[in-house]
Design brief:
By secondary structure, the chain is α/β, with parallel strands linked by helices. It has 11 helices and 12 strands. A hairpin with a 2-residue loop joins strand 6 and strand 7. The structure holds ligand PBG.
């Protein structure tokens, strides 16, 4: 059948019809909001490169999470800035560490919010790399037990799920084994499986004070040229016991999200990263794009590409828009 019988415009005529035939829809259940907690702060501090985002003091956990929870966002992903760093990132596994305290505060002050913690060393090491160094190399195998200690301490503090972002080989099985041997068989792992070495992390590194002091992360994060390799990473993480597979960043990697979605049966998450957020904020501040429409389009495209879950700094705004039917 073709024109004039077929007219695809018929189903685009009204809001009602468009809504009835929409193939995908972003729901508040799909959104995860990242949050930064800083052990050194007394009051919230705006992150210059990420307008609307803050570094929060631990004491402001309710202020940071309450609005998200009220808007219907069910989950947060926590990043921590410690009060001191060392070569090994030991502040990351202290029971009194910034994440451990923030998790405790959220659990008691914002009950019902699902708390995911990022597991990595880069915010806690003096050199800013995601693992321990041997010379100028990041030592994969020596890093694994440190990540396991960090993950366990997050879980002991009350984290509901852990999300390793370090890109060391074998870390999912190490974390799964370590958590299980301490009785935490029910805590899911969301693995940053296909995490690319990306310029789009720039604003985050300012926010989390985690830029590497020398070199870059290309010896452990993935090369943007590779998509088949992302499938290998995803398959390995599934085999090692990951419950959710993540692709990161999202927008320059929508093809990777789709291919991973088609290759695995577990849920897929996509991280709409800091640089993707900052570009929209900058362009809308300049009056060049309509922010809320751009956000809706971006999040919808990530969903259409195949992501079940979307980690985004736009989560609060998006959830409010969805709730008030302004979506
Ligand atoms: C830590 C980590 C990074 C991000 C999440 N976890 C930064 C990096 O790898 O340099 C980036 C998040 C963002 O840009 O929003 N390893």
């Amino acid at each position: 059948m073709s024109f004039p019988v077929t007219r695809l415009r018929r189903l685009r005529a009204t809001d009602t019809l468009r809504g009835m035939v929409a193939e995908v829809r972003v729901g508040v259940d799909n959104l995860i909001s990242p949050l930064f907690f800083d052990a050194r702060l007394q009051r919230p501090e705006p992150i210059a490169a990420m307008p609307g985002q803050m570094r929060w003091p631990i004491a402001a956990a309710a202020e940071a999470c309450g609005p998200l929870s009220e808007a219907g966002v069910r989950a947060v992903l926590l990043f921590g800035l410690p009060d001191a760093k060392d070569e090994e990132g030991s502040a990351s596994w202290q029971a009194t560490g910034v994440i451990q305290q923030a998790v405790g505060a959220i659990r008691s002050q914002v009950p019902g919010l699902f708390v995911i913690t990022d597991v990595c060393l880069c915010e806690y090491t003096t050199h800013g790399h995601c693992g321990v160094l041997r010379g100028h190399e990041v030592d994969n195998d020596a890093t694994l037990p440190l990540l396991a200690r960090q993950a366990l301490s997050h879980v002991e503090a009350g984290a509901d799920m852990i999300a390793p972002s370090d890109m060391m080989d074998g870390r999912v099985s190490e974390l799964r084994r370590y958590l299980d041997s301490h009785g935490h068989t029910e805590i899911p792992i969301m693995a940053y499986s296909a995490k690319y070495a990306s310029a789009f992390y720039g604003p985050f590194r300012e926010a989390a004070d985690s830029a590497p002091a020398f070199g870059d992360r290309r010896a452990y994060q993935m090369d943007p040229a590779n998509a088949r390799e992302a499938l290998a990473e995803a398959a390995l993480d599934v085999a090692e016991g990951a419950d959710i597979i993540m692709v990161k960043p999202a927008l320059a990697y929508l093809d990777v999200i789709r291919r991973v979605r088609d290759a695995v049966t577990c849920p897929v998450a996509a991280y709409n990263v800091s640089g993707e957020y900052s570009m929209i904020k900058a362009a809308s501040a300049a009056g060049w794009i309509d922010e809320s429409r751009a956000v809706r389009e971006v999040l919808t495209s990530i969903k259409r590409a195949g992501a079940d879950l979307i980690i985004s700094y736009h989560s609060l705004d998006a959830a409010r828009a969805i709730k008030s039917s302004q979506w």
